[in-house]
Amino acid sequence: HAPMLAWWKGRFYLEFLAAPRDEHQDPTPTLLTSSIDGRRWSAPRVIFPAFTPEGDDHQTIAHQRMGFYVPPDGERLLVVAFYGRWPSPNEGLGIGRVVREVGKDGRLGPIYFIRYNRHAGWDETNTPHPFFRTSPDAGFVEACEALLADKLVVQQWWEEDRSPDGFYRLGGEGFEGKAFSWYTRADGVVVGLWKAGYAASSSDGGRTWSERKKLPSIVVGHAKMWGQQTEDGRFAFVYNPHFEWRYPLALHTSEDGLTFHDMASVHGELPDTRYQGGAKDIGPQYVRGITPGNGDPPGDDMWLVYSMNKEDIWTSRVPVPIRSRVDEWVNDAFDGLIPGGPVDNWNVYSPLWAPVEVVAFPSVVDQSLRLADGEPYDYARAVRVFPEAPRVDVGLRVRPEPGEAGRLEVDVLGRGGQRPVRVVLAEDGWVQAWRGDEAVKVSRYEAGTWLALRLSVRSGAGTFDLAIDGRAVLEGAAFAEPVDAVERLSLRTGAYRRIGAGLGLGRLEEDDVAPDRPGAGERVPEAVFFIDDVTVAPPRLSRIHIS
Fold first, then answer.
1. Given this model, what pLDDT does residue 498 score?
2. Contact (CB, 8 A) for 356 and 384
3. CA-CA distance, 535 to 489, in Å (whole number)?
4. What angle do CA 334, 353, 410 make, to 5 degrees?
5. Residue 58's Cα: distance from chain center in Å?
6. Strand blocks (E) in 188-332
7. Which residues have CB under 8 Å from 450's CB, separation 6+?
8. Segments of the chain scoring below 70 in pLDDT
9. Computed over its alpha carbons, how large is the radius of gyration of the chain?
10. Comparing C-alpha atoms, which of 78, 164, 60 is closest to residue 114?
11. Which pairing describes strands 235-239 and 226-229: parallel, antiparallel, or unpaired?
12. Exposure check for the chain: N or C terminus, fewer CB within 10 A?
């Protein structure tokens, strides 16, 4: 969990923590991975290994609310972590904060301490790494000094440090500000955000602050919040909008960084937990974007990173300007997109073993969308939003690949996620469709052959028609659930799952979940579906002859 993100010299860098089982179990090291495109990542490597402090029986537990620092000249990338002690690493009793440099070629410099928890009894004499000022690299020392002098950046350190030496602008007896992040409004005011819905502002760049208060107008539990200015000059505020759950991951947008509106979902999927463990909150959490000063990737997108169930690390590319509605109808052939690149106008849920991507199939001039699924406990999903309407015609072509039998569920959805129209390419080779509360087999399909689906949806009547390869197989079928209008097409390589799937939505302790799911870390044979020529439009009006 606890991922952090930076962009430097043409690459994303992502730092995170990993324990053997529970959230805070020794040893918990810090790991690093990198990516050129934010989708394909290098194998993570341990960059701050755990050690056993003098006099302790347990190894260290990493804990940090900050990951990277780029000094003002932009020529170095520092990666930072905190060595905490078992059983609680973030209450001021840990060893101290460490730093090392990531070179332009990806090589790592030596590990140094940049700040000891001296008030807890730790210093140069009883720790395994030297102090940064002993480094023979003058440029590295200068970069570390610049980091120490940046009071906005180091405010992120307070939670683990809690030193009474006056190093922090905000701190001291009774202060409990965790997971600090900030953004600067258009009027120059810095807005600070903390866990659990707390905020404060500074009109002098973070030297002095207003009283830290709980935001009265948002619903949030004890989870991280994130705010930033987006490339279009507007602002985004990202958090988990529930008093207890860390689900979903949602955002609001704003013109001035003060008044936010238009909630939309960043990550609405909630896969089941796969591994038993303590203090494992459910949902997409620990959200962070790219902290000010830590780089600006090409393009206008907002990049977010977070943990899912404290088991997986996710990145999300949020196109800017951020939209929660669309006003154009759909005619997607995928031919103008870059294979393996962003899938424009689609909301893509793409786990590592269930990727969703544009591919040059059946040819380089006739591309398609590929949904694959080798996940034992998750699926691939792609959602296309269209203008909300009571009546629409939906068309698409589907090709199941020969090999492992898979499942593709095609749903037409209402704005609240209702699923009135449900069509399934099932594992047994049958196309099924829901007629009211009954699933009926309507046609066989063959792997390796394109299948054309055509749906005519009528919300007013609560019915739909289905044609396959131009042949009507259902007419006037009743909706599976009522809805006044529809606005999304969903393609999913697994069965629909209800939120939580019986596991609850809060924090899981050791006794709350079953033992590790069988084969949770093993890839299964991959099922593949190609999608092409997706269209959504209002029904064509019949010609009326007046004599």
1. 78
2. no
3. 10
4. 50
5. 32
6. 190-194, 198-202, 213-214, 226-229, 235-239, 249-254, 260-267, 280-281, 284-288, 302-308, 312-318, 330-332
7. 397, 398, 399, 532
8. 500-514, 541-547
9. 26
10. 78
11. antiparallel
12. C
**Residues 64/68/72/73 CA torsion (nearest 10 deg):** 150
Q: Which of 175, 178, 183, 171 is nearest to 197 (CA)?
A: 178
Residues 6+ away with beta carbon under 8 Å from 86:
24, 25, 26, 56, 58, 59, 60, 61
The residue type found at 473 is V
* Distance of alpha carbon 230 from alpha carbon 251, whole angstroms: 12
Task: Give the pLDDT of residue 142.
Answer: 98
Contacts for 316 with CB less than 8 Å, ≥ 6 apart: 249, 266, 267, 303, 304, 305, 306
Residue count (the chain): 547
Give dist(CA 501, CA 143) in Å, integer: 48
The amino acid occupying position 46 is V
DSSP strand E in 364-462: where?
Answer: 366-373, 381-389, 391-400, 408-413, 421-425, 430-435, 438-444, 451-458
Dihedral of the alpha carbons of 368, 353, 35, 105, in degrees to the nearest 10: -120
Rounded-to-integer distance, Cα 368 and Cα 427, Å: 22
Residue type (1 letter), 214: K
Helices then strands, each counted (H, E), the chain = 3, 37
Question: DSSP string covering 161-211, please?
Answer: H--SSS-SSS-STT----S-EEEE-TTS-EEEEEGGGEEEEESSTTSS-PP
Q: Where are the alpha helices (DSSP H) in 398-523?
A: none
Which residues, at least 6 apart from 141, have a Cβ–Cβ distance to it below 8 Å?
Answer: 132, 133, 135
Spatial separation of the C-alpha atoms in residues 156 and 195, rounded to whole Å = 12
At a CB cut-off of 8 Å and minimum separation 6, what does 384 contact? 330, 332, 345, 346, 347, 488, 489, 534, 536
**Residues 6+ away with beta carbon under 8 Å from 243:** 219, 220, 221
Work out the burial of residue 355: count CB atoms within 10 Å of its CB; fewer than 13 is exposed, 13-18 middle, 19 or more buried.
Answer: buried
536 contacts 388 by C-beta, under 8 angstroms: no
Note the pLDDT of residue 501. Answer: 42
Instruction: Give the whole-angstrom CA distance, residue 409 versus residue 490.
Output: 8
Distance CA 118, CA 371 (A): 53
In terms of phi and psi (left: phi > 0; alpha: psi -120 to 50; beta: otherwise), the region of 368 is beta
Confidence (pLDDT) at 470 = 97
Which H helix or E strand runs over 140?
helix 138-149
Give the pLDDT of residue 173: 85
> What's 131's DSSP letter?
B
SS3 232: coil
Q: Quote the CA–CA distance of 2 and 179 in Å, as a whole number.
A: 10
CA 183/CA 440 separation, integer angstroms:
53
User: DSSP labels for 400-426?
Assistant: EPSSS---EEEEEE-TTS---EEEEE-
- pTM of this structure: 0.95
